[in-house]
Amino acid sequence: MGEKAVATVLDKPSSSLANRPPASGLVRDLAVARRVIRAEIEGLEQLSQTLDAAFGVALDLCAAARGRLIVTGIGKSGHVGRKIAATLASTGTPAQFVHPAEASHGDLGMIGVDDAILALSNSGESAELADIIFYSRRFKIPLIAITGGRGSTLAEAADVVLPLPVAAEACPMGLAPTTSTTMMLGLGDALAVALMERRGFSEEEYRTFHPGGQIGRVLLKVSDVMHGAGALPLVKPDRPMSEAIIVMTQHGFGCAGVVNAKGRLVGIVTDGDLRRHMGPSLMESPVETVMTHAPKTIGPDALAAEALGLMNMSDKPFTAMFVVADAKPIGIVSVHDLLRAGVM
What we know:
By secondary structure, this protein is α/β, with parallel strands linked by helices.
């Protein structure tokens, strides 16, 4: 590389920050951003204030559907519809997005008589929705409309209308769907969560639909990561410590649980206990003279994150904990199991 080329490379800004607008430009940009956000907040506030009994009727239709909730829309409404369908499906309401143009070319077959339809259109006059509207009326499939066009074709055909209030779009020309699509999204989320709560959708069901990612890890239960009864390092309180050490070594958890004649956990022997009682008579000492009484335990239905918190936040952090039911050990969970599962 020649000297001029090297000089050119060295003269280039090392970061995109070097190309940022001057302070006056940044102030202008932030003002635009805040104006847009305020406009959308105002639209959502109007939407919240104007919700009425129609929302309950729409919920009744959605909940009564024995099939799926079909969400449809074109353009930006279609993009919002896809998100609404995904949120519904992940919170216990079977849902599917059907593109209205594709519906006119065979995908109407995806919509069954046991389904309900949620159609999104700000104007309510989107020509692409015509065939789905006709199909819903022909087969008496419940039709719920989210639209700003109260007297529109879609609104007139629907069984129930969730109207969008008159609110200015955030774009300076008042044309780009911004405030209207934010309100649509808010209504879709409101429907999904209201249906979720009406059905008593549980954390366990939610975790079933979200096994991956951070949500899945947050909702992991102790029973999902613990070692079962066959892996438990257990010893009786009257046995010699030589036996307890063998049990600890065989199982590799760095501890042994101490159970009484009724099978209840009454203590634990840890590596720390061994160090504190190290001496010539340790091997012959009864386990009950060395063990830690009333060890910390956890139930199988507790969240795995809670187990990790107990291990880490104790005055004396530890690396394994027994899982109990009715005071009897049914499993053991180690900090290494929790970290491998991605619990944080």
